[in-house]
Design a protein that fits this description.
The protein contains four helices and eleven strands. It is α+β, with helices and mostly antiparallel strands. It starts with a strand and ends in a 7-residue tail after the last helix.
Length: 152
């Protein structure tokens, strides 16, 4: 992927395409006709590793608040709630992922997209701002991974 930035998580290169914006919860956002399409960034996919379960707890047409719980995800490394990256109206989910979430693992910036929301993307980060955010997040993630979160 030559058209973007790269953030290194140790030896792993997390590619950051320049054609999208980014949420602080490690989702990318691509402007589409009716709003924004969201998916997990390479950084998030690397931390999650093999995603094997995805569940949505809200329905299309729901008005969402930023950071509202919208579902859950399970992977070989984590179980977590999923939160709306922006406020707006949920347009639809990527239905293919419900029966086979492996698209998240193999094509996070393409077929592995999660959902679309119509809303204001003003709070989304530019690619360089997201890389700056990753620098802070990676420092915390490394301590968490090593079990050293309480040491400063």
């Amino acid at each position: 992927m030559s058209d973007g930035l790269v953030f290194y998580m140790g030896q792993f290169a997390a590619h950051i395409p320049l054609d999208r914006r980014y949420a602080r919860n490690h989702m990318w956002a691509l402007h589409v006709e009716r709003g924004w399409r969201f998916g997990f960034t390479a950084y998030a996919v690397r931390l999650l590793q093999d995603v094997y379960f995805l569940e949505w707890t809200v329905d299309p047409g729901t008005t969402l608040q930023e950071r509202q719980s919208i579902g859950a995800i399970e992977s070989s490394k984590a179980e977590s709630e999923l939160f709306a990256p922006i406020a707006g109206t949920l347009l639809h989910f990527n239905q293919q992922l419900l029966s086979d979430p492996s698209g998240i693992n193999v094509d996070p910036y393409g077929a592995g997209w999660l959902f679309e929301i119509s809303g204001d993307g003003a709070a989304l980060l530019s690619p360089p701002a997201y890389v700056d955010h990753l620098k802070e997040a990676w420092a915390i993630a490394q301590r968490t991974i090593k079990g050293q979160i309480n040491e400063d």
